[in-house]
Amino acid sequence: MNKNICRGIYALICEHLDDILTLRNTRILKDDLSFVSKGDLLCDKLVKNFIKENLPNSHIVSEEIKESWNIPTNAEYIVTVDPIDGTENFVSGLKEWGIGISIYHNDRHFQSMIALPEFNICLVTGDKLERISGSRLCGLPSYMKPEHFEQLDRDYEYRQLGCCMLNMYNVIKGCFTKFHHLTGCYSWDILPGMNLAIEHGLNVEIEGKKYSGCFLQPGIKYKFVVKDSII
């Protein structure tokens, strides 16, 4: 298996970044009242074409293609793609959006990537990362109900950035001491960050149980926390 798949995808996104950014003002309201843009669809097309050319015998799970959530039992490789995470930020002209890729081979994690193109950040399985220590910040999801705020620990300061990939990168880097998602999000939002977090020695829990890198079924919302191992 080509270990440069994620690097190749990031290089492709950077090559087409100007084209992607010109599509910010092309938002379309989906049935769930969230936005998708032509930028999302272009990223999705670029990534899928690259995977098909460079990773044969793979099944691609994409946020934007619901039919892809049905995974064939004979799939050797499963690639989960979030073409633009933080679409609301993207279409609003903010830089806080990202791309997430997670590759599984015969049900075992092989490689993941968090890319934040407008910040020129790309973190891939195997990368070294110098972590920041001593942060008191905790990342939160952008959508929360009043009762969720009542559950928060008063020992932290909180940040809501509207992009799961950026939140995941921040907790892996140490900018956040933890990222707590009380409302839940989908596998394509979290598989890249969770596997990279485990690699860098962080504690990851889903629905109150330790997570060790297994594949997560698409179309299901998962509540989770990723935190520094010293907490």
Automatic annotation (TrEMBL):
Its cofactor is Mg(2+). Pfam families: Inositol_P. InterPro entries: Inositol_monophosphatase-like (IPR000760). Transmembrane segments: none annotated. Keywords: Magnesium, Metal-binding. Mg(2+) binds at residues 63, 82, 84-85. GO terms for biological process: inositol metabolic process; signal transduction. One of its GO terms (molecular function) is metal ion binding. The keyword Magnesium applies. PANTHER family: INOSITOL MONOPHOSPHATASE, INOSITOL-1-MONOPHOSPHATASE-RELATED. This is Myo-inositol-1(Or 4)-monophosphatase.
